Amino acid sequence: MEKNIAVLPGDGIGGEVTAEAVKVLDAVADRWGHAFAYQYALVGWAAIDNTGSALPEETVETCKAADAIFFGAVGDPKRDPTLPPAERPEPVALLTLRKGLYANLRPAVIEPDLADLSALRPEAVSSGVDLLIVRELTGGLYYGRPKERRGDAAVDTMAYSVEEVDRIARVGFEAARKRRKKLTSVDKANILACSQLWREVVVEVSKEYPDVELDHMYVDNCAMQLVRNPGQFDTIVTENTFGDILSDEASMLVGSLGMLPSASIGDGSQPAFYEPIHGSAPDIAGLGIANPIAAIRSAAMLLRYSFGLNEEADAVDNAVSSVLREGLRTADIMQSGKRRVSTSEMGDAVVEKIRKG
Ligand code: NAD
User: Would you say the pTM of this structure is higher than 0.70?
Assistant: First the structure.
Protein backbone atom coordinates (compact mmCIF):
# COMPACT_ATOMS: atom_id res chain seq x y z
CA MET A 1 0.00 0.00 0.00
CA GLU A 2 1.30 3.48 -0.89
CA LYS A 3 0.07 6.38 1.23
CA ASN A 4 0.89 10.02 1.91
CA ILE A 5 0.78 11.18 5.50
CA ALA A 6 0.87 14.88 6.43
CA VAL A 7 2.96 15.15 9.59
CA LEU A 8 2.52 18.28 11.74
CA PRO A 9 4.81 17.95 14.78
CA GLY A 10 3.98 21.43 16.19
CA ASP A 11 5.37 22.73 19.47
CA GLY A 12 6.97 21.48 22.68
CA ILE A 13 6.92 17.70 23.00
CA GLY A 14 4.87 17.51 19.77
CA GLY A 15 8.07 16.97 17.77
CA GLU A 16 9.52 14.44 20.21
CA VAL A 17 6.50 12.14 20.32
CA THR A 18 5.77 12.51 16.60
CA ALA A 19 9.30 11.30 15.78
CA GLU A 20 8.59 8.06 17.69
CA ALA A 21 5.23 7.56 15.97
CA VAL A 22 6.89 7.96 12.56
CA LYS A 23 9.58 5.42 13.54
CA VAL A 24 6.78 2.98 14.37
CA LEU A 25 4.99 3.65 11.06
CA ASP A 26 8.28 3.01 9.25
CA ALA A 27 8.70 -0.31 11.05
CA VAL A 28 5.17 -1.29 9.98
CA ALA A 29 5.90 -0.24 6.38
CA ASP A 30 9.10 -2.33 6.34
CA ARG A 31 7.51 -5.44 7.83
CA TRP A 32 4.37 -5.46 5.66
CA GLY A 33 5.87 -3.96 2.49
CA HIS A 34 3.95 -0.67 2.49
CA ALA A 35 5.31 2.69 1.33
CA PHE A 36 4.40 5.63 3.55
CA ALA A 37 5.58 9.06 2.37
CA TYR A 38 5.62 11.83 4.98
CA GLN A 39 4.99 15.47 4.14
CA TYR A 40 6.13 17.56 7.08
CA ALA A 41 4.39 20.91 7.61
CA LEU A 42 4.56 23.75 10.10
CA VAL A 43 1.84 24.41 12.67
CA GLY A 44 1.54 26.31 15.96
CA TRP A 45 4.25 28.64 17.24
CA ALA A 46 6.76 26.89 15.03
CA ALA A 47 4.64 28.18 12.11
CA ILE A 48 3.99 31.64 13.58
CA ASP A 49 7.73 32.20 14.03
CA ASN A 50 8.42 31.20 10.43
CA THR A 51 5.39 32.48 8.53
CA GLY A 52 3.34 34.70 10.87
CA SER A 53 0.40 32.28 10.93
CA ALA A 54 -0.31 29.33 13.25
CA LEU A 55 -1.71 27.44 10.28
CA PRO A 56 -0.07 28.63 7.05
CA GLU A 57 -1.90 28.06 3.76
CA GLU A 58 0.91 25.71 2.67
CA THR A 59 0.16 23.47 5.65
CA VAL A 60 -3.55 23.44 4.83
CA GLU A 61 -2.71 22.43 1.24
CA THR A 62 -0.35 19.70 2.41
CA CYS A 63 -3.10 18.32 4.65
CA LYS A 64 -5.74 18.45 1.90
CA ALA A 65 -3.49 16.45 -0.41
CA ALA A 66 -2.69 13.78 2.19
CA ASP A 67 -4.38 10.44 2.89
CA ALA A 68 -4.25 11.13 6.63
CA ILE A 69 -2.99 13.83 8.99
CA PHE A 70 -0.75 13.09 11.96
CA PHE A 71 -0.58 15.92 14.48
CA GLY A 72 1.71 16.34 17.50
CA ALA A 73 0.62 19.25 19.70
CA VAL A 74 0.59 23.04 19.59
CA GLY A 75 0.66 25.88 22.06
CA ASP A 76 2.87 27.66 24.53
CA PRO A 77 1.14 28.92 27.68
CA LYS A 78 3.72 31.74 28.01
CA ARG A 79 3.21 33.04 24.47
CA ASP A 80 -0.45 32.09 23.80
CA PRO A 81 -1.85 35.01 25.90
CA THR A 82 0.03 37.50 23.67
CA LEU A 83 -2.49 36.73 20.90
CA PRO A 84 -6.26 37.32 20.81
CA PRO A 85 -8.06 34.04 21.73
CA ALA A 86 -9.23 33.36 18.16
CA GLU A 87 -5.66 33.59 16.79
CA ARG A 88 -4.01 31.23 19.29
CA PRO A 89 -2.46 28.06 17.87
CA GLU A 90 -4.82 25.53 19.45
CA PRO A 91 -8.15 26.93 18.15
CA VAL A 92 -6.70 28.05 14.80
CA ALA A 93 -5.06 24.73 13.97
CA LEU A 94 -7.52 22.29 15.48
CA LEU A 95 -10.77 23.94 14.43
CA THR A 96 -9.61 24.31 10.84
CA LEU A 97 -8.02 20.90 10.39
CA ARG A 98 -10.83 19.02 12.13
CA LYS A 99 -13.62 20.90 10.29
CA GLY A 100 -16.10 18.45 8.77
CA LEU A 101 -14.72 15.51 10.74
CA TYR A 102 -17.81 14.49 12.68
CA ALA A 103 -16.60 11.55 14.72
CA ASN A 104 -14.05 11.77 17.51
CA LEU A 105 -12.66 8.44 18.67
CA ARG A 106 -10.95 8.23 22.04
CA PRO A 107 -9.84 4.87 23.38
CA ALA A 108 -8.93 4.40 27.04
CA VAL A 109 -6.83 1.33 27.73
CA ILE A 110 -5.52 0.27 31.13
CA GLU A 111 -3.00 -2.52 31.12
CA PRO A 112 -3.60 -4.62 34.27
CA ASP A 113 -0.11 -3.93 35.64
CA LEU A 114 -0.61 -0.16 35.27
CA ALA A 115 -3.79 -0.31 37.36
CA ASP A 116 -2.23 1.48 40.32
CA LEU A 117 -1.65 4.60 38.15
CA SER A 118 -5.38 4.98 37.56
CA ALA A 119 -7.39 7.61 39.41
CA LEU A 120 -9.62 4.69 40.46
CA ARG A 121 -8.85 2.15 43.15
CA PRO A 122 -6.70 -0.61 41.62
CA GLU A 123 -9.38 -3.26 42.29
CA ALA A 124 -11.82 -1.34 40.03
CA VAL A 125 -9.46 -1.67 37.07
CA SER A 126 -7.21 -4.60 37.95
CA SER A 127 -8.70 -6.85 35.31
CA GLY A 128 -7.89 -4.23 32.68
CA VAL A 129 -9.96 -1.72 30.75
CA ASP A 130 -10.16 -1.39 26.99
CA LEU A 131 -12.92 0.96 25.89
CA LEU A 132 -13.50 3.32 23.00
CA ILE A 133 -15.65 6.44 23.11
CA VAL A 134 -17.09 7.56 19.78
CA ARG A 135 -18.22 11.16 20.21
CA GLU A 136 -20.31 13.09 17.68
CA LEU A 137 -18.20 16.18 17.04
CA THR A 138 -19.99 18.65 14.79
CA GLY A 139 -23.60 18.85 16.01
CA GLY A 140 -25.70 19.19 19.14
CA LEU A 141 -25.60 21.81 21.85
CA TYR A 142 -22.26 23.35 20.88
CA TYR A 143 -23.43 24.34 17.40
CA GLY A 144 -27.26 24.57 17.55
CA ARG A 145 -28.91 27.94 16.88
CA PRO A 146 -30.24 30.10 18.47
CA LYS A 147 -27.32 30.45 20.85
CA GLU A 148 -27.38 33.83 22.52
CA ARG A 149 -27.57 36.00 25.58
CA ARG A 150 -31.02 37.57 26.03
CA GLY A 151 -30.66 40.19 28.72
CA ASP A 152 -30.80 38.37 32.02
CA ALA A 153 -31.40 35.02 30.29
CA ALA A 154 -29.47 32.96 27.74
CA VAL A 155 -30.33 30.23 25.29
CA ASP A 156 -28.44 27.32 23.72
CA THR A 157 -30.02 24.88 21.32
CA MET A 158 -29.52 21.15 21.13
CA ALA A 159 -30.53 19.90 17.69
CA TYR A 160 -29.81 16.68 15.78
CA SER A 161 -31.06 15.44 12.44
CA VAL A 162 -31.66 11.80 11.51
CA GLU A 163 -28.75 12.05 9.07
CA GLU A 164 -26.32 13.28 11.74
CA VAL A 165 -27.28 10.49 14.14
CA ASP A 166 -27.28 7.84 11.41
CA ARG A 167 -23.72 8.59 10.29
CA ILE A 168 -22.23 8.66 13.81
CA ALA A 169 -24.14 5.51 14.76
CA ARG A 170 -22.52 3.77 11.79
CA VAL A 171 -19.07 4.87 12.97
CA GLY A 172 -19.94 3.37 16.37
CA PHE A 173 -21.13 0.06 14.92
CA GLU A 174 -18.18 -0.22 12.53
CA ALA A 175 -15.74 0.48 15.37
CA ALA A 176 -17.45 -2.03 17.66
CA ARG A 177 -17.34 -4.60 14.87
CA LYS A 178 -13.53 -4.24 14.77
CA ARG A 179 -13.38 -4.67 18.56
CA ARG A 180 -15.38 -6.92 20.90
CA LYS A 181 -18.70 -6.29 19.10
CA LYS A 182 -20.53 -4.56 21.91
CA LEU A 183 -21.91 -1.02 21.48
CA THR A 184 -23.39 1.10 24.26
CA SER A 185 -25.39 4.06 22.98
CA VAL A 186 -25.49 6.82 25.60
CA ASP A 187 -28.35 9.32 25.68
CA LYS A 188 -30.88 11.00 27.97
CA ALA A 189 -33.97 9.67 26.22
CA ASN A 190 -36.09 9.91 29.36
CA ILE A 191 -35.90 13.74 29.13
CA LEU A 192 -34.53 15.04 25.81
CA ALA A 193 -36.31 14.98 22.44
CA CYS A 194 -32.90 14.84 20.71
CA SER A 195 -32.07 11.71 22.69
CA GLN A 196 -35.38 10.09 21.74
CA LEU A 197 -34.55 10.67 18.07
CA TRP A 198 -30.99 9.46 18.75
CA ARG A 199 -32.24 6.19 20.23
CA GLU A 200 -34.75 5.60 17.42
CA VAL A 201 -32.08 6.07 14.75
CA VAL A 202 -29.47 3.97 16.55
CA VAL A 203 -31.98 1.11 16.84
CA GLU A 204 -32.78 1.43 13.13
CA VAL A 205 -29.08 1.34 12.15
CA SER A 206 -28.48 -1.62 14.47
CA LYS A 207 -30.58 -3.80 12.12
CA GLU A 208 -27.68 -3.65 9.67
CA TYR A 209 -25.24 -4.83 12.36
CA PRO A 210 -26.80 -8.01 13.78
CA ASP A 211 -23.33 -9.19 14.87
CA VAL A 212 -22.93 -6.21 17.23
CA GLU A 213 -24.68 -6.34 20.60
CA LEU A 214 -26.37 -2.99 21.31
CA ASP A 215 -27.45 -1.61 24.65
CA HIS A 216 -28.61 1.86 25.75
CA MET A 217 -27.56 3.77 28.83
CA TYR A 218 -28.60 7.15 30.22
CA VAL A 219 -25.67 9.54 30.39
CA ASP A 220 -25.86 10.02 34.17
CA ASN A 221 -25.71 6.26 34.69
CA CYS A 222 -22.83 5.99 32.20
CA ALA A 223 -20.83 8.63 34.09
CA MET A 224 -21.34 6.54 37.22
CA GLN A 225 -20.62 3.17 35.58
CA LEU A 226 -17.36 4.50 34.10
CA VAL A 227 -15.94 4.91 37.59
CA ARG A 228 -17.74 1.93 39.15
CA ASN A 229 -16.85 -0.75 36.59
CA PRO A 230 -15.19 0.61 33.43
CA GLY A 231 -14.25 -2.92 32.34
CA GLN A 232 -17.89 -3.53 31.32
CA PHE A 233 -17.58 -1.21 28.29
CA ASP A 234 -16.34 -2.00 24.81
CA THR A 235 -17.49 0.81 22.47
CA ILE A 236 -19.60 3.80 23.55
CA VAL A 237 -21.32 6.07 21.02
CA THR A 238 -22.76 9.38 22.15
CA GLU A 239 -23.60 12.94 21.16
CA ASN A 240 -21.25 15.90 21.34
CA THR A 241 -21.71 17.31 24.86
CA PHE A 242 -22.08 13.95 26.60
CA GLY A 243 -19.05 12.66 24.69
CA ASP A 244 -16.95 15.68 25.64
CA ILE A 245 -17.57 15.04 29.33
CA LEU A 246 -17.42 11.23 29.28
CA SER A 247 -14.22 11.10 27.24
CA ASP A 248 -12.45 13.40 29.70
CA GLU A 249 -13.75 11.27 32.56
CA ALA A 250 -12.48 8.13 30.82
CA SER A 251 -9.05 9.68 30.28
CA MET A 252 -8.62 9.96 34.05
CA LEU A 253 -9.08 6.21 34.37
CA VAL A 254 -5.79 5.65 32.58
CA GLY A 255 -3.51 7.71 34.80
CA SER A 256 -1.35 9.65 32.33
CA LEU A 257 -2.16 11.96 29.46
CA GLY A 258 0.86 10.44 27.75
CA MET A 259 -1.07 7.21 27.12
CA LEU A 260 -4.17 8.58 25.34
CA PRO A 261 -4.54 8.64 21.55
CA SER A 262 -7.38 10.05 19.46
CA ALA A 263 -8.77 10.17 15.96
CA SER A 264 -11.21 12.55 14.27
CA ILE A 265 -12.79 11.05 11.19
CA GLY A 266 -15.44 11.99 8.66
CA ASP A 267 -17.07 10.49 5.59
CA GLY A 268 -13.76 9.90 3.80
CA SER A 269 -14.03 12.97 1.55
CA GLN A 270 -11.26 14.64 3.57
CA PRO A 271 -8.29 13.14 5.40
CA ALA A 272 -8.87 12.04 8.97
CA PHE A 273 -6.87 13.58 11.80
CA TYR A 274 -4.85 11.68 14.42
CA GLU A 275 -3.27 13.15 17.54
CA PRO A 276 -2.34 12.34 21.11
CA ILE A 277 -4.84 14.10 23.38
CA HIS A 278 -2.13 15.83 25.39
CA GLY A 279 -0.78 19.30 24.66
CA SER A 280 2.75 20.56 24.06
CA ALA A 281 3.78 19.99 27.70
CA PRO A 282 6.34 22.85 27.87
CA ASP A 283 7.32 21.78 31.39
CA ILE A 284 9.05 18.67 30.00
CA ALA A 285 9.78 19.70 26.39
CA GLY A 286 13.34 19.03 25.24
CA LEU A 287 14.16 16.74 28.16
CA GLY A 288 13.59 13.49 26.28
CA ILE A 289 11.23 12.19 28.95
CA ALA A 290 7.80 12.60 27.28
CA ASN A 291 5.74 9.46 26.93
CA PRO A 292 5.36 8.68 23.20
CA ILE A 293 2.69 5.98 23.70
CA ALA A 294 -0.27 8.34 23.06
CA ALA A 295 1.33 9.34 19.75
CA ILE A 296 2.27 5.75 18.86
CA ARG A 297 -1.26 4.56 19.58
CA SER A 298 -2.59 7.46 17.48
CA ALA A 299 -0.46 6.10 14.63
CA ALA A 300 -2.06 2.68 15.20
CA MET A 301 -5.49 4.35 14.89
CA LEU A 302 -4.36 5.97 11.63
CA LEU A 303 -3.43 2.54 10.25
CA ARG A 304 -6.76 1.08 11.38
CA TYR A 305 -9.24 3.81 10.49
CA SER A 306 -7.69 5.58 7.48
CA PHE A 307 -5.87 2.69 5.81
CA GLY A 308 -7.92 -0.31 7.02
CA LEU A 309 -4.68 -2.01 8.12
CA ASN A 310 -6.11 -3.85 11.11
CA GLU A 311 -3.40 -6.48 11.43
CA GLU A 312 -0.71 -3.80 11.40
CA ALA A 313 -2.64 -1.66 13.91
CA ASP A 314 -3.07 -4.67 16.21
CA ALA A 315 0.65 -5.34 15.94
CA VAL A 316 1.44 -1.78 17.10
CA ASP A 317 -1.02 -1.96 20.02
CA ASN A 318 0.31 -5.39 21.01
CA ALA A 319 3.92 -4.16 20.80
CA VAL A 320 3.06 -1.31 23.19
CA SER A 321 1.35 -3.70 25.62
CA SER A 322 4.23 -6.11 25.46
CA VAL A 323 6.86 -3.42 26.12
CA LEU A 324 4.84 -2.24 29.13
CA ARG A 325 4.48 -5.82 30.40
CA GLU A 326 8.25 -6.15 30.23
CA GLY A 327 8.50 -3.21 32.63
CA LEU A 328 9.63 -0.29 30.47
CA ARG A 329 8.30 3.01 31.78
CA THR A 330 8.66 6.67 30.88
CA ALA A 331 8.80 9.07 33.84
CA ASP A 332 5.04 9.82 33.91
CA ILE A 333 4.14 6.13 34.42
CA MET A 334 7.19 5.06 36.45
CA GLN A 335 6.54 2.43 39.13
CA SER A 336 8.93 0.89 41.61
CA GLY A 337 10.91 -2.05 40.26
CA LYS A 338 10.37 -1.00 36.64
CA ARG A 339 12.94 0.27 34.14
CA ARG A 340 12.80 3.99 33.41
CA VAL A 341 13.38 4.82 29.74
CA SER A 342 13.53 7.96 27.61
CA THR A 343 11.08 8.96 24.88
CA SER A 344 13.25 7.47 22.14
CA GLU A 345 14.08 4.30 24.09
CA MET A 346 10.36 3.64 24.48
CA GLY A 347 9.86 4.21 20.73
CA ASP A 348 12.83 1.95 19.89
CA ALA A 349 11.47 -0.84 22.11
CA VAL A 350 8.09 -0.73 20.34
CA VAL A 351 9.83 -0.72 16.93
CA GLU A 352 11.92 -3.74 17.89
CA LYS A 353 8.80 -5.71 18.89
CA ILE A 354 7.15 -4.87 15.56
CA ARG A 355 10.23 -5.84 13.56
CA LYS A 356 10.56 -9.17 15.39
CA GLY A 357 6.86 -9.95 14.82
P1 NAD B 1 -0.45 19.41 28.47
O2 NAD B 1 -1.23 18.23 28.00
O3 NAD B 1 0.54 19.95 27.53
O4 NAD B 1 0.30 19.03 29.85
C5 NAD B 1 -0.39 18.74 31.06
C6 NAD B 1 0.55 17.92 31.98
O7 NAD B 1 0.68 16.60 31.47
C8 NAD B 1 1.96 18.50 32.06
O9 NAD B 1 2.48 18.33 33.36
C10 NAD B 1 2.75 17.64 31.10
O11 NAD B 1 4.12 17.50 31.40
C12 NAD B 1 2.02 16.29 31.20
N13 NAD B 1 2.10 15.56 29.91
C14 NAD B 1 1.39 15.84 28.80
N15 NAD B 1 1.72 14.99 27.82
C16 NAD B 1 2.65 14.16 28.33
C17 NAD B 1 3.41 13.09 27.79
N18 NAD B 1 3.25 12.67 26.52
N19 NAD B 1 4.30 12.46 28.59
C20 NAD B 1 4.46 12.84 29.86
N21 NAD B 1 3.78 13.85 30.44
C22 NAD B 1 2.90 14.52 29.68
O23 NAD B 1 -1.51 20.52 28.86
P24 NAD B 1 -1.28 22.04 29.30
O25 NAD B 1 -0.03 22.15 30.13
O26 NAD B 1 -2.56 22.48 29.85
O27 NAD B 1 -1.06 22.83 27.93
C28 NAD B 1 0.23 23.16 27.39
C29 NAD B 1 0.02 23.78 26.01
O30 NAD B 1 -0.55 22.80 25.14
C31 NAD B 1 -0.96 24.96 26.01
O32 NAD B 1 -0.46 25.95 25.16
C33 NAD B 1 -2.26 24.38 25.48
O34 NAD B 1 -3.03 25.34 24.78
C35 NAD B 1 -1.72 23.33 24.53
N36 NAD B 1 -2.63 22.20 24.26
C37 NAD B 1 -2.63 21.75 22.98
C38 NAD B 1 -3.40 20.65 22.66
C39 NAD B 1 -3.32 20.17 21.25
O40 NAD B 1 -2.45 20.59 20.51
N41 NAD B 1 -4.20 19.28 20.83
C42 NAD B 1 -4.15 19.98 23.62
C43 NAD B 1 -4.09 20.44 24.95
C44 NAD B 1 -3.31 21.56 25.26
Answer: yes
